[in-house]
């Protein structure tokens, strides 16, 4: 009887922890691609990408300058991760507090005329996207911007988003994101296989 009570007590503690304990998740997309870190109390864990310790030591530390910190990554690659946002917009999305939320798009193309047209379209797209995000999630302090850089030859995106949620919410959201991530990985694999077949035939 006593062991059963101990097991029930442990289960109860775990359930209460899942309901009360909050986890902070910070996702950043920049020139190095996506990075996701989680914080539980004083402990910070890198969730993605998973790199070897040797590679992490070999990488050079980033400068603290704002312009280097916000060097964006490619727009096409960023668009590949939008299905993950769709998964987050499921049931209970309004309970998710996203703070900070930074989304900066720097537009640039080799042709100045096309770059100017694209800049206007990018501003319109940002104007359409923000009301959707605002109505779906709780974003108290958004930082959105579209800039033009005629020295760039391709559009760049810098995104920084922080989530604070309970362990229970994190588990449910994680299950949905794993499903979306698996589908994304499958699509990438099929795309690479298709490209390999084309090169073989050529």
Could you outline the blueprint of secondary structure elements for this entry?
Layout: H1 2-20, E1 22-30, E2 33-40, E3 43-48, H2 53-58, H3 66-69, E4 73-74, H4 75-79, H5 82-88, E5 97-107, H6 112-136, E6 142-148, E7 156-166, H7 167-201
Parallel strand pairs: 5-6
Antiparallel strand pairs: 1-2, 1-7, 2-3, 4-7, 5-7
Q: For the terminal residues, how far apart are their CA atoms? A: 72 Å
Major sheet: 7 strands, mixed
Low-confidence stretches: 53-68
Overall average residue pLDDT: 77
Order of helices and strands: HEEEHHEHHEHEEH
Instruction: Give the count of helical stretches.
Output: 7
Strand segment count: 7
* Helix-strand category: alpha+beta
The helix content is 40-55%
Shape: elongated
Compute the gyration radius: what is it? Answer: 21 Å
Strand content: 25-35%
């Amino acid at each position: 009887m006593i062991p059963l009570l101990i097991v029930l007590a442990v289960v109860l503690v775990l359930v209460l922890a899942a309901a009360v304990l909050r986890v902070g998740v910070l996702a950043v997309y920049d020139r190095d691609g996506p990075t996701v870190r989680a914080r539980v109390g004083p402990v910070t864990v890198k969730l993605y990408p998973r790199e070897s310790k040797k590679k992490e030591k070999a990488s050079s530390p980033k400068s603290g300058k704002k312009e280097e910190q916000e060097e964006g990554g490619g727009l096409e690659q960023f668009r590949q991760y939008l299905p993950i946002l769709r998964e987050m917009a499921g049931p209970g999305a309004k309970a998710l507090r996203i703070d900070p939320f930074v989304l900066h798009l720097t537009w640039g193309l080799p042709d100045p005329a096309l770059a100017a047209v694209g800049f206007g379209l990018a501003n319109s797209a940002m104007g359409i996207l923000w009301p959707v995000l605002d109505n779906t999630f709780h974003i108290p302090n958004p930082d959105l911007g579209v800039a033009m850089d005629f020295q760039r030859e391709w559009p760049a995106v810098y995104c920084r988003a922080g989530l604070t949620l309970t362990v229970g919410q994190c588990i449910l959201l994680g299950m949905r994101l794993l499903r979306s991530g698996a589908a994304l990985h499958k699509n990438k694999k099929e795309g690479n296989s298709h490209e390999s077949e084309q090169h073989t035939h050529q």
